[in-house]
Sequence to fold (468 residues):
Amino acid sequence: MGSNPIKLTTPLSEEDVRALRIGDSVKLSGVIYTARDAAHSRLVELLEAGRELPFPVEGAALYYVGPCPAKPPRVIGSAGPTTSYRMDPYTPPLLAAGLRAMIGKGKRGPAVRESMQEHGAVYFAAVGGAAALIARCVKELEIIAYEDLGTEAVRRLVVEDFPLIVANDAHGGDAYLENRKPYQSLVLD
Amino acid sequence: MREVSTELVTRTVRDLCLEANYRLPPDVERALAEARTRETSPAGRDILDVICENARIARDEEVPLCQDTGFTVVWAAVGREVHFDGDFKAAVDEGVRQGYREGYLRKSIVEDPFRRKNTGDNTPAAIHFMLVEGDRVDLLIEPKGGGCENMSRIAMLKPADGVEGAREFILRTIDEAGPNPCPPTIVGVGVGGTFELAALLAKHATVRPVGEYHPDPFYAELERNCLEEINQLGIGPQGLGGRTTALWLAIETHPCHIASLPVAVNVQCHSARWKRAVI
Ligand code: SF4
Fold:
């Protein structure tokens, strides 16, 4: 990445996250967990039943991804982000439980953005379609829950320098709205 | 009559599935690199760097450019002097099956739109069959991702809406799509024909090489203007702001009914994958 990226390692503290602003380039290292639609619905069921999640949620980062099968000897197949808004209905309870960061692509809804401000969380955009490059950042992989879900199972990944951009910060900032303005000379009514 | 073996069709489709998913067409790669030199948004430049680097990695390591290896769209132009020794459609599906298994590509097709059980091998392909002159079989494979396909739209405009109405519909479609189709995109536009024909034209327009304008100067100018306006929307790479929202826009047209003006927009992401072979 051209602009000086901020290096961060998980688990993330509230302080780490509150220091970030929309548009910041970040390189994230450490443990992250994967979950898509089906896994989210199960995770939230656990929370509602007052049970433990299959991973330590405090300070955790969730990556919305359904990777390709791994081509030996690789750890993971191509693994770019999926569209995040489908996870919106499940997100506020996870944030209340301590989730600190989410990685995906595309806009989030108002309830998620409010909850992020309240609990101090960040939403990172990974580069959609940069799946071969992102796979290279993944150093270890372990399926930790819901193996029956195939590509949607919850995986524990160890990543190194995963390139991200802050799309929604903990202060209500939304890069999809604000960072577009300086480049927009045509506004549709 | 020329006899073409369905085994050769299978082998060709298999190879095209791998090639298409591992290598970005050179014109698309060039367009991305050129966009990088023009982009003024810092985040936009970073993203274009990542996209260009991703294309290099996928090519060198022979791994999929994107984890969504798509619905396998097959454009098959078959010469009328060709005779196949077996079931053409089954041969294409077998090629997809082998390609997606052997190439470690993701299987993204469900067998029923409501009951949604994965077919497990990315079949069936979406085959668009055209009967043409000659004794050749021209196969073009276009793996189409879900994120960008979902942002595609069709409108049955009134003839009185004219060029202005079509332009506005195209711009609105891209504006509403925002970051979802993984911009920078390639925009395929189909104008005229019937409801289904317009959609087909729009999809086919997405495989016209970047840089090749419509042969009719009227449409070439419309292509130029629409592309310029799309890039004034500020959406930018991945929707995070910038001047590169679309890399290219291509229009295909067809005669239409005196009462209609169908306009379809098919959005293709920057992972604008396709590969062609003639047998
Ligand atoms: S829209 Fe294209 S680049 Fe983005 S995730 Fe889907 S297939 Fe990949």
